[in-house]
Protein: TetR/AcrR family transcriptional regulator
Amino acid sequence: MRRTTYHHGALRDALMAACLRLLESEGLAAVSLRRVAREAGVSTGAPYHHFPDRSALLSALSVQGFQLLADELSAARAAAPDPLAALTALASAYVRFSREHPAHFRLMFRPELSQPEKHPDATVAGDAAFAVLTGTIAECVAAGALPERGAETLAVTFWALAHGLAALWLDGQLAKRSDQLGTSADELVAEILRSFTALASPAAG
Structure:
């Protein structure tokens, strides 16, 4: 039964939620504005009130994903007892986000889909999420827990580590390797992050 009672803001949210359901259940190939409209129970012309094309819808979901990620990173940072512990907590939160929001995660890092040159909000939102990490690195440097030299490179390195672990987990490879090592994926991630953080600290040099 087709719904006709969405008000303006709720229609946008309903279309984004419908797109996420399609991404999670059938993958990217299933996503078109016509198919999303059918999934949301609205007319095929309804999505065009908010999204002129498919990339605009995917970009909006990327923005939403980065905002959710930034919120989770900020919460992890605030709950940690000190800046160095916060750094490890951020990476753990990043991996956890990928598991809890796999459709968002896979989309957020596909610029050929969200077309940031047309929809720059996704880039802005991604930079805001990354700023939580760089801010935590700066706090670690100020506390003497990390060296000042190469701090910006270290931020990218830490992001690469967390992103790699998240991608491996989503692809099932982390569970496979943790089984071979006689541990769980959670424990393997935690040990990798602890080891990397220890190596990056001044005391390791």
About this structure: The chain has ten helices and no strands. The two ends are 66 Å apart (CA to CA).
